[in-house]
Amino acid sequence: MTMYELAKERFAALGLDTEKAMETLRKKAISINCWQGDDVVGFDNPDGGAGNGIQTTGNYPGRARSFEELKADFLKAASMIPGKKRINLHACYAVFDKEHPWVDRDQLTYDYFAPWVAFAKENDLGIDFNPTVFSHPMMKDGLSLSSPDEKVRRFWIDHCKATRRIAERIGQELNDEVLNNVWIPDGYKDIPSDRLGPRLRLKEALDEIFAEPCPHVIDCVESKVFAIGVESYTVGSNEFYLAYAATHPGIYDLMDMGHFHPQEFVSDKVSALLPYFDRIPLHVTRPVRWDSDHVVLLDDELKELMKELVRCGALEKAVIGLDFFDASINRIAAWVLGTRAAQKAILFALLQPDAELKKAQDEGDFTRRLVLMEEAKTLPFGAVWEEYCRRTGVPADGAWFDGVRAYERDVLLKRN
Ligand code: RNT
Ligand code: ZN
Q1: Structural domains in the chain plus CATH codes
Q2: Which of 193, 314, 327, 354 suits 278 as a labelling partner, its CA being 20 to 30 A distant?
Q3: Residues that place a CB less than 5 A from ion ligand 2
């Protein structure tokens, strides 16, 4: 018997179907953040670097500096990632060329992203999208959509409207839905003298941004508790956006695992939103002490989040996007590691004795619940993961890293 066959029997004894789990996993798309490939720099201001609440640390060699390099690196990573993949783009990744020279972000149109759509079609990828409301001179006093300056607000409203139109057109071209996520860094380092004004301005801006019907777009707003340099007040807080989404049908509250108080967990929030929303958009990341966007690993909170999605029957409702950026390690390894960890966590969650666990809870048998939960951690799920990699034609754990090293030697280290 193979390791997989043994594992299959072991899970079957608990009433769990490993074949079905692998099939479910294969169909669940993960939206992979393009910005891990170039430290969130983008193509519209390559000398600018990330700013306004976005911080990357490290200077590992080989950062992708162009559309061609980013595409090549992404494909290299994708070749080691099983299952359905989407590429999550930011507006700052507009492709400029002779026919489509540089324009500012409020002037962007679909044409600047048509090359990404061609790339997606060639490689069977979905696309998701984001306005880029940071790293730009039109950020004024740390504010964008909530700025008291009418000109600043207008610029960013026009930018966000442009991105919805672009996302809509991408959706039409790919015959798919495209998530468009509005995250803004607006806030204050020190104690504000007016908390309401910025929030009222943000609300009005959002109303204008979302006015146009875009049937192919999944509109999201992403809240945050604080950022470095924005410690005292964040305009787009969780209460603000959750209330906004709840009162605006078709707008969803996107939860980033790093955007809450460190004692709060998104795994606990999913079931609070499920009675009210038919989609749960997520940014899967790994906050270390703050919203540090470390590469996702198979840690307890990731497993808990995926377990929650599975046992709530919400895996289909979850729109899973990754959000990490580490410039201190090989960026392709980061992509592969993070995406595979998210997928492993889903598989792990699909192979939990959920029915038994729920029964124990409902019967008030908390001892059994704890015992079952603990012992489910060491079931032979690794053998199922390995089989899944084999069937999907990607290298198993232990077999992909050499390929990344070779690419580093042959391609990345030649960039300077
Ligand atoms: C920032 C937010 C946001 C960004 C990306 C690049 O704190 O998490 O989602 O990380 O849009
Ligand atoms: Zn995020």
Answers
A1: 28-350 (3.20.20.150)
A2: 354
A3: 256, 283, 323
